[in-house]
Amino acid sequence: MDRIKIVGGQRLKGKIPISGAKNAALPLMIASLLTQDRLTLKNVPNLADVNLLARILRNHGVDHSVDGKRAGNNQHIGETFHLTARDIVDTTAPYEMVSRMRASFWVLGPLLARMGEARVSMPGGCAIGTRPVDLHLMGMKALGAEIDIDGGYVVARAPKGLRGNRIIFPKVSVGATHNVMMAATLAKGETVIENAAREPEVADVANCLVKMGAKIEGIGTSTVRIQGRDRLEGAVHTVLPDRIETGTYAFAVAATGGELFLEGARPELLETPLDVLRRIGATVTIEEGGIRVSRDGGHLEPVSIETQPYPGFPTDLQAQLMALTTTARGTSVIRETIFENRFMHVQELVRLGADIKLHGDTATISGVQGLRGAQVMATDLRASVSLVIAGLIADGETMINRVYHLDRGFERLEHKLSACGAIIERITA
Ligand code: EPZ
Prior knowledge:
Blueprint: E1 3-7, E2 12-17, H1 22-31, E3 38-44, H2 48-60, E4 63-66, E5 79-84, E6 92-93, H3 95-98, H4 108-115, E7 117-121, H5 134-142, E8 146-150, E9 153-157, E10 166-168, H6 174-184, E11 190-194, H7 200-211, E12 215-217, E13 223-227, E14 235-238, H8 243-256, E15 258-263, H9 271-280, E16 283-287, E17 290-295, E18 304-306, H10 318-325, E19 331-335, H11 345-351, E20 355-359, E21 362-366, E22 375-377, H12 381-393, E23 397-401, H13 404-409, H14 413-418, E24 423-427
Parallel strand pairs: 2-15, 3-14, 6-7, 10-11, 18-19, 22-23
Antiparallel strand pairs: 1-23, 1-24, 3-5, 4-5, 7-9, 8-9, 11-13, 12-13, 15-17, 16-17, 19-21, 20-21
């Protein structure tokens, strides 16, 4: 198993190109199931999750090809995927695949809408919390599907097709919004989703669906209105930049000091995290083509935040923010309201010398003078990268074990950081 070794204490300086967003690329790839025609996606990040989903989609009959790159082509520019689901050959998404990546559960809506049936494994346990699928099932039932649970599988049927309806989600769910929105594009009549997730990745998928011929109003708001169509067509769409990757490197340079230009980042996608960074003491400048973040010798201020659905502070940046606050001058408080168990990084940060107390959903971080390198273990994607940030500020050597989590969501992480002065290397077992 690969490990990452970091020798901390270096300031970051330089330019980091921001990749396409994983959490948009995945549902965009799934949207290819809605049409017989070719969907071309540009700026797709080269990540383990993306490659696994491509395999899952091939299993359903999606023809997948990737544009080649010539030697010398800019390796930072994401890949171009062509996905064609001319014939769906299999409407089952098996346990072996769905259990490895939760987002693959979202094939349920598109398969059901197009084929009138789908058999999709329940995703099962997950390190960051229980993560049920009740809202997804509620949405599919509202669209007229019959749902059974059989042998760990959701078996959904709508032999006469789906019918539009009004769905009021009792809780904001990114995945359930994606799933219902995609299904509703091929339902008969109008679907209205109330309390829809407003995450930019949901809007990116909606914009792609519109290019495919879907009729959608209220994109990016909490009320999304979809007029069903008989069929959708092919389209060409560019995946939006990854706001979580952007925030991660922005927090990293605030932690180490120095200056980074985050190339291709879009500031309007992460206003709340950028505000938090300014409060902490970093300088954030919006420039043509990206965001510049810097911090000179000044100390870090403590902050109090709670995670919220977009446009609030994202749960996917909570661990990274915590790593940053470990050396702030004072006490920070971070409350996690989205996932009940998303604190596995706490014990690992404590191993590096952080002073963090956990009470239920709230972490209290008392800033310390500095961290010291140690052996730590990556537990989930965002927790892992918080350990990278902590390793960059810690004195001495930090060894991060089980880094395959990082490969699920951060493209070329160690290259991007070492190009900006970090001492970081992957040790391949
Ligand atoms: C998406 O997960 C993201 N994944 C997650 O990113 C992100 O943390 C999360 O949204 C919240 O922003 C992708 O986009 C691939 P939810 P999702 O449904 O859709 C509860 C990362 O690190 N809920 O919005 O699975 C749920 O338990 C990942 O990139 C139900 O109760 O999250 C949670 O408390 C991790 N019933 C809350 O809603 C349901 O049926 C929000 O979950 C569905 C969800």
